[in-house]
Design goal:
6-stranded mixed beta sheet, 60s Ribosomal Protein L30, Chain: A
Length: about 120
Amino acid sequence: MKEKITSENIKAIGPYSPAIRIGNFLFISGQIGLDPKTGNLKETLEEQTEQALKNLEEILRSSGLSLDNVVKTTIFLVNMDDFQKVNEIYSKFFKEPYPARSTIAVKSLPRNALIEIEAIAYL
């Protein structure tokens, strides 16, 4: 049976759940660089990347988990030239063994974000 996971701070901006737990897995919806305190999108790619990862961390924490539980991430980038910048920030949040990961170039993202990151965690 699936269970909706909510966080006091992280709210969905559409008709979807921030996260769903089913069995021993937690599926976290894509997070963009929205500041949960203001509801505003951070300005730079670096700020958006860091905020998206902090938002993932908050959802994990509300489930009693941490980034160490993440087994797979998917990153959506508006500009693949930003790949290395994202890697630098990403590596500050995750440690080895790093989660499996895909990075996909997209034309656009909600609210004109530059990056979106989704994750799957194992409980």
